[in-house]
Design brief:
The complex is a heterodimer of chains A (about 450) and B (about 475). Chain A has about 450 residues and is of the alpha+beta class. In chain A, about 25% of the residues lie in helices and about 35% in strands. Chain A has a domain at about 225-445. Chain A starts with a helix and ends with a strand. The mean pLDDT of chain A is about 95. Chain B is globular, with a radius of gyration of 24 Å. The longest helix of chain B has 19 residues, at about 70-90. The termini of chain B are far apart. The model of chain B has no long low-confidence stretch (mean pLDDT about 95). Chain B has helices at about 1-15, 70-90, 120-135, 200-205, 205-225, 240-250, 255-260, 325-330, 365-370, 420-425; strands at about 15-35, 40-55, 60-65, 105-110, 140-160, 165-180, 185-195, 225, 230-235, 285-290, 310-315, 320, 340, 350, 355-360, 375-380, 380-385, 395-400, 400-405, 410-415, 415-420, 430, 440-445, 450-460, 465-470. The chains are: A alpha+beta (about 450), B alpha+beta (about 475). At the A-B interface, β1, β2, β4, α2 and α4 of A face β1, β2, β3, α2 and α3 of B. β4 of chain A pairs parallel with β2 of chain B, so a sheet runs across the interface.
Chain lengths: ~450, ~475
């Protein structure tokens, strides 16, 4: 049975089997990845990403039982067997008091601009030309070797629900992640786009190679407190942690440092944060969320004050908040995290750094206590030492630590240029500038 | 399915592949998550898929197809072989691949009580019981507990002639809880994992262990003193030994990392290919990685390239002894594979991974290690941890920890830092606990792109570390 027909069949069958709330989501598409290391292509991967996923509830609101599955869709007999199992499985679970029903409004949807480009679908072997160019360019500009991935995806998502929603949209994206390495240093950049026209990877490759060269001969530095300029890739990791802490379910489960912080100051006044589900050309954009609610922009942090938690329809009711259209039916999720830019250029941010560091990338952000936000993380790739607003050298083997509330309250300046980032450490798409943050604890082994 | 696998390999070879492998997997997964007493997620799936990997000219290609048909297999492989050939023109270095013996084997892990015979209600009740016991504590704040079962039926075939059929039932439980006392909070996150039937769960002694951990952490909150500063000795329990081994010995001894294949993702290694025999620890330290540990979460008899499993002695008396290899990295070093190739699920490429990694026990009791310390820290477990991407700069922050004064545990201590470089850490080992102090803990280990979280375990005995700068 074809995917779309199977999807309609599943919805109708589940209705007849007594399910109350039903969401059936299909995806048909492909994903390609060329992975490279040491200037060589080490893997060429292709996935058929087609799947059919189902959420359902049985019973009345407030007394619902919920279940979900991904099912095989090629054979009607197999579908019937799996649906019967799903219904039985769901009836056997305990009551999910957190689930308070799908939204019942009559929604109208607007197309999100620029999230699909047929040129990405037809990229084919041209991906190899891009890869060869990126590797060669990095080496011409001073890298001794490169590693990374060139990934492109395309497909169609269709959502049908028991609330009579039937919407579909196309999507595509392309991502180059490239780490340029010398014998003792490295720098990592990403270029991500939903269309080929804006996929301007060459400046990023040149930047990676230049920074890798500039970071050569890194030295150990003393432990202490430093003012630090975070480049967008490093800052996106902090912003992702902030975004995750605004998820309503994280607050309920002790996984957020924003518990009981609504309408309180949680960051510097210079910092604001939006989640924009319908961001034009946004990697995490879609016209509707997983419950069928139209996506929109939500101001999460306004000049330092926490304004709302990211939610789905059920958690919005539990917290008595306006819905933000961030379902995940069972767990809300960010779509595109957007930080409004500041007024100064990157150069002026650097010029204002009297005695500090530039961090270009980081990883391994881990918490001792999520509620307190106490954590540490390790800068990786180029780390520059700055004196009097100028780079005077590079550093290695350091760790930053602190608590997220204090660190975000110490955001001193944001640059006037932002970048779109998705990286290996955090897969939440973000659009962030550079940030200068003061007084961060740095330790060195 | 045998027919489909043979078909896939022949399509790849006809299209020009020099070598090919195919695996068909049926993955039966159920997963329950309770946030406090509420079943926030109840999920199951039964998926069937095929993964084909091949070498064409000088490049590796792969294809993943859910619900495979011959038509789809044929079209996707042909397209991808062409792409791999185009990619191989970038490559200057000759792709080497070790020659390995071909096997025809069938094996399965026994379930005394079959996972699929356990009702969904009982799985839910298991979590609820753990929650109910925890929530009776006055200091209980919140919990999130999930229980997952997965039964993987796999049929593997390669163009060397290997045919390996396996059935592995897995069970895992992840828990996270917060305790609160005197206006302060602390948290605990842990992973329990094993293979076999429902009987696996009994070994975890859930109801007692979670409550005991919560009580001990409450005691730390109520009575803990600030961590002292200065140079002192540490005794670490098996959970801390485990994370030390996993992060600073297991990962940096993965040959693909050492050779730079994972540079832009999970990183590289401070270890280089010419460092076999180099001292990185004290004479007391012997470290093994093995998939052949009964009931362990990373048990397998043949790896994902059809190579027969064996123990790998990573560190012998403080010297680097062996890396973990697949067929590509081993060929580069003129060796054969030691069967370290694993996947997280059928859609992923095989990568070099740890399995069950541990410090070999010594002869000292844990009590004698503690007795040997005048002033120091006993770190039983940890919460925050991390390490840099060459696996040199390590940190674990104690969760349940105590002061040692004149050879005795005196009072709880608040969250001491073990922040140290890998050489100093393993060189500081001056005592190794015996089997009585030995323990393994589960862990989901991340690597690759897309990210692959594979079940592993890590551990060993208690260790005595001298002269740690706190």
């Amino acid at each position: 049975m074809k995917l779309n027909l199977a999807q309609d069949y599943v919805l109708n069958q589940l209705k007849s089997l007594g399910a109350k709330d039903i969401v059936v989501t299909s995806n048909s598409g492909e994903s390609f990845q060329n992975k490279f290391a040491n200037n060589e292509v080490v893997a060429n991967k292709n996935w058929d990403t087609s799947n059919l996923s189902i959420f359902l509830s049985v019973g009345d609101e407030g007394n619902s039982k919920t279940g979900s599955t991904n099912i095989s869709y090629s054979d009607q007999t197999a579908i019937d067997a799996q649906l019967k199992r799903l219904i039985k499985f769901t009836k056997n679970t305990a009551t999910n008091k957190n689930f308070l029903g799908l939204p019942s409004e009559n929604f109208k949807y607007r197309e999100v601009r620029g999230i699909y480009d047929p040129e990405i679908k037809s990229l084919g072997k041209n991906s190899i030309s891009i890869l060869r160019d990126a590797i060669d360019l990095a080496n011409q500009k001073g890298a001794e070797r490169t590693g990374g991935t060139l990934t492109h995806n395309y497909g169609t998502t269709r959502i049908v629900t028991s609330t009579d929603i039937d919407e579909s949209y196309n999507y595509s994206n392309i991502l180059l992640s490239l780490r340029a390495l010398t014998s003792d240093s490295s720098a990592h950049k990403v270029c991500v786009s939903t269309n080929m026209k804006e996929f301007k990877y060459r400046p990023k490759v040149i930047q990676a190679a230049n920074e890798a060269k500039l970071a050569s001969y890194p030295e150990r530095i003393k432990s202490g407190k430093y003012d630090i300029m975070f480049q967008p890739m490093a800052f996106s990791n902090l912003v992702s942690e902030v975004g995750k802490a605004t998820i309503a379910e994280s607050v309920e489960n002790g996984l957020s440092f924003y518990t009981n912080k609504l309408n309180k100051q949680v960051t510097s006044e210079k910092f604001s944060l939006f989640d924009v589900g319908n961001l034009a050309r946004g990697l995490g954009s879609r016209p509707l969320d997983s419950e069928g609610r139209p996506t929109k922009a939500t101001e999460l942090i306004s000049s330092g004050d926490l304004k709302t938690y990211l939610n789905n329809s059920s958690s919005a009711k539990r917290f008595k908040l306006q819905p933000t259209a961030n379902a995940g039916i069972l767990y809300s999720k960010p779509s595109n995290l957007v930080v409004p830019i500041g007024r100064k250029s990157d150069e002026k941010l650097l010029a204002g750094l009297e005695d500090g560091l530039i961090i270009t990338n980081s990883w391994y952000h881990r918490y001792q206590n999520y509620i307190k936000g106490s954590f540490s993380a390790l800068p990786r790739d180029a780390i520059f030492v700055v004196k009097g607003g100028k780079i005077i050298g590079s550093a290695k083997d350091i760790r930053i630590s602190g608590d997220m509330i204090n660190i975000m309250k110490n955001v001193d300046e944001l640059s006037n240029k932002k970048e779109r980032i998705v990286n290996w450490e955090s897969d939440i798409p973000s659009e962030v500038p550079s940030a200068r943050i003061n007084n961060i604890k740095v330790t060195s082994v | 399915m045998e027919d489909l696998l043979k078909f896939a390999i022949s399509v790849a070879q006809d299209a020009g592949a020099n070598w090919a492998e195919a695996r068909y997997a049926s993955e039966d997964v159920s997963s329950f998550q309770y946030d406090n007493s509420i079943p926030i997620s109840s999920y199951y799936t039964l998926s069937n898929s095929i993964f084909i990997r091949f070498i064409s000219d000088n490049s590796v290609g792969s294809v993943f197809i859910p619900e495979p048909t011959k038509e789809k297999i044929s079209s996707m492989i042909k397209k991808q072989v062409k792409l791999a050939k185009a990619a191989s023109r970038i490559n200057q270095e000759k792709l080497l691949f070790s020659k390995e013996k071909a096997y025809t084997k069938k094996y399965s892990v026994k379930e005394k009580t079959k996972l699929n015979s356990i009702s969904d209600e009982e799985k839910g009740k298991t979590i609820l019981n753990a929650y109910n016991n925890l929530s009776k504590l006055e200091s209980f704040d919140s919990s999130s507990i999930n229980l997952n079962t997965k039964i993987t039926d796999k049929y593997y075939m390669n163009s060397d002639g290997s045919v390996i059929i396996s059935k592995i039932p897995e069970i895992t439980m992840n828990y996270f809880f917060t305790v609160k006392s005197n206006g302060k909070t602390t948290q605990r996150m842990n992973n329990l994992a094993g293979i076999g039937g429902w009987e696996t769960l009994k070994r975890w002694n859930l109801n007692k262990s979670l409550v005991s951990e919560a009580k001990n952490l409450t005691n730390v909150l109520n009575k803990g003193v600030p961590a002292p500063k200065g140079v002192m000795d540490f005794v670490v329990g098996h959970e801390v030994t485990g994370i030390m081994v996993h992060e600073s010995v297991g990962h940096p001894y993965e040959a693909d990392r050492i050779m730079g294949r994972e540079s832009a993702q999970a990183g590289e290694s401070f270890v280089k290919t010419d460092m076999i025999g180099r001292r990185v620890g004290s004479d007391h330290v012997n470290i093994i990685d093995t998939p052949l540990m009964d009931n362990s979460p990373a048990y397998y008899l043949y790896d994902e390239e059809g190579v027969k499993s064996r123990d790998k002695i990573l560190m012998k008396k403080g010297l680097i002894n062996e890396f973990m290899h697949d067929r590509i990295s081993s060929a580069k070093m003129g060796l054969t594979s030691n069967a370290s190739s694993r996947i997280s699920d059928n859609s992923k490429e095989p990568l070099i991974r740890m399995s069950n990694t541990y410090v070999v026990p010594g002869k000292s009791t844990e009590a004698s290690l503690i007795k040997d310390v005048k002033k120091g820290i006993y770190m039983k477990n940890f919460m925050e941890w991390n390490i840099d991407d060459t696996r040199y700069n390590f940190k674990a922050k104690g969760n349940e920890a105590y002061l040692i004064e004149n050879g005795e545990l005196t009072k709880p201590v608040l969250f001491p830092n073990l922040e140290i470089d890998t050489y100093k850490m393993w060189s500081s080992v001056d005592g190794v606990g015996n089997k009585a102090s030995f323990g393994m803990v589960g862990g989901v280990c991340g690597k690759g792109e897309p990210m692959q979280g594979v079940p592993t375990s890590m551990g060993g005995p208690s260790l005595l570390l001298r002269g740690i700068n706190l």
